[in-house]
Amino acid sequence: MDYLGLFPVFYVPDVGSAWLMGLTGTIHIMASHTSVGAAMLFAFLAHKAYKEDRDDLYDYMKRYGMFLLIFSYVIGSITGPGIWYTATAASPRGISALIHNFVWVWATEWVFFIYEVIAVFALVYFIGKIDKKTHLKLTYTFALASVGTLALIIGIISFMMWPGNDAFYNTGSASDAFFGLNTFPHMFLRIGFMVMMSGVIGLIISSAMKRENVELSNELTRKMGYVGLIGGFVALFFFMWYISTLPANADAVLGLTLDSIIFNRIILAIMFSLYFFLAILKPQWIGKYLAVIMMFVIGIVGVWPGEKLRESMRKPYVAGQYIYSNQIISRDVPGKGVKSEVEVVAAKGLLGVDPWVPERLRTITPENKLEVGEYLTKRACSNCHSLEKGGKYRSMIALFTDKVQMTDAASIKSYMQVIGTGSIPYMPKIALPDEEYDAMAEWIATQINN
Amino acid sequence: MDATILNVLRDPAGVPFFPVVFQGLYILTWALHAAFVLLALGSFGLSLYGSMKQKHDANWKVLNPHLIQTGKLSISLLILLGIAPLLFTQVIYDAGWYVANTLSGAWVFIFIYALIAAYLMFYWYYYANKRNGGGGTFIGLISFLIVVFCGILMHNFAVISISTPDQWMEMYAPGGVIDTSGLNLAWDIVRLAFLVSLAIPVLGIFLQNYSDFVSTKSDYSADFVSFTRKLGNKFAVIGLLISAVLFVLWMMQENLLMHPVSLATIVSVVILLIMAMFLKNSYITTLWLVVVALFISGIRELIRYNIMSGLGYDLYGYPVNLEIPTIAMFLSTFVILGFTGVAYILTMAWKVGKLENGATLDGTKSAAVTKLGNITLGLFVLWMLIYFAWGMIILFKNTL
Fold first, then answer.
1. Any long-range contacts for A359-363 (C-beta under 8 Å, 24+ apart)?
2. What is the pLDDT confidence band of residue A17, given thresholds at 50, 70 and 90?
3. What is the CATH number of the domain that holds A378?
4. Nearest residue on chain A to B174, alpha-carbon basis
5. Which residue of A336, A435, B236, B337 pairs with B13 in a disulfide if CB–CB is 3.0 to 4.6 A?
């Protein structure tokens, strides 16, 4: 047997396992981006407090810091490894490829993260207990450590989209993989968003201070308005650059949804510009409930669709444009000694190369055909599609019934065979043996017609 | 699972450095992670008792907020320090890590959100206790139980990954019928009991340290210092005896009782017991505790190595694709920046902790704080400059 290094399939009915990662990822982005943005903001505020000898700004930093400890350093620090865990369950070979290429980068990020977390506890709890100059220095190091975590993770998540050229495939070097074409635009896009998030969260804190000190509350609300505007502008500017560094398959997905993305982003940009201008011009109008609602708006209408789009644009790959979402290696990577698995799958079928198939299912018979079809569909399609009728995300049944309007096994099989030739850029180019297509098509047809 | 499949499940890209180095880093970082897991369990657990006593007992009134604060920081640090062993284990033991995560995929998801809920409730407990000068016990208890539940889930992942490779197929397809629900669970009660029991002596030695620390401060009474020291002694001694018995049972179960690492661990525990009972300077006891933790971490790794190599997994034959620039980055960051930075904050924390009655630390007058601060800041700036220069060079090389 020529087994491939495939792992057991984990599948959540109606949702699909990959979406668990999407949910965790969205929560993490909100928390982690706020933390990096707030670290930069803290450096600015601590500098101002030291230069102008202002004690009141420390009170604001302390409140912000306490919020940050819970929002970013409880939720964020758990969802960080949480993405990793859920990604492992959903796409084990994808995350394995990243780990085996970037383990030392990740380990370096861990060092920065340790410093960042110890520093945030220190700078929050040391307020009023150490002199301002020492506190300022500590805050500078915290900001640099925090930006450092971004600098280290950004190359890895950019590589997930693509390395940008062939250098990595030939050398296998982590440096060539890490510093790809879209690493820096991606970094500055996120820095802009992080600064904006620090403003969005900063408005919650400043608006909650009205009762104790209305003047300070208004001053900081204005400042957070400026911070949000600057961050939003930087994010939009670098988004344009980032889009121009994407691979062709991403352009194809982008092309399908470009109008709705532009509409969504324009609406968001207008909404948040108005919000930030309101904070600058009429700070007294920003209440804490409005500020909290706007935080949820940015999460639900901004981050969630943004992350869904980024995940979709990677298709059909999950990492480095050499591993498909269904965990099959799509091309040779000579620099690492990695071989394409597409050919062996075409010749022997998934049943012939998957070490996790029970013996009674290795050969398709009339009795087990539907059972095998279900398993093969889960193995080949469930990383991106939910498989049940009424499934929530990228429902395969809905695609067949509504989009291509094919409901019988023969048509479904033909359609899958066409996809396997690579005719759709965001679908994997993998051919399967005829009998495996048959089994999958029959099971899908059964689902449609049940 | 036979040897062929276990070896096929290794990543085709190979490992970027020699496997034995990852093994060593795993042992080291797991020991650090475990230390804070145990301190979190111990301090959190004792604080629940303390939260009921602190309104009426002067000593508990002082101690309990510190126990809760210790629990809060320890949970944060255990999460942080847990990242590294996860990283290193999956580089060299791909099969175990990825199979356990897929076979228990649903529990993985539950684990993440349960831990978030537990930690948020912990903050609730912290604020409730702080506001009322005691209490919050009920929400604290719920949080504690969820933390324990998360610990059991983590134990389950470890057991599936290292102790049951020959049962993986039956878990995935019981009776030949494939189950993709990711709801598998597995236990090893003796192993779990031993590891959890270590929370008691770790808490005891922490309390000894705490007592020594506050003994030099005039705002803590001699009675309180004596109370915490006695409490620490009791937990350390009784806890070590319980852990020692459970360790022997565990080693008997694994047929490793006479193995040199196992014997060395027993000797190290006996030395720790003597130190905890008689040594006046508990900071030295803590240093020895680190050695014991490394032995225990080593035993865990020995068990896994024996199981996997017994099944034919060729760890040291894992293809190596040397990756020099990034390991150079890691080692220099870890050793130079990491140690300097942590020393900087710990020095400050130590000095702040020694302040009395609302005094302020003037860090500019402390040579250690000033120098360490300047060096740390300089190293961060230098690191950033190197990062961008490196990125530019690679980008120009590959695109121009």
1. A359/B176, A360/B176, A361/B176, A361/B178
2. confident
3. 1.10.760
4. A358
5. A336
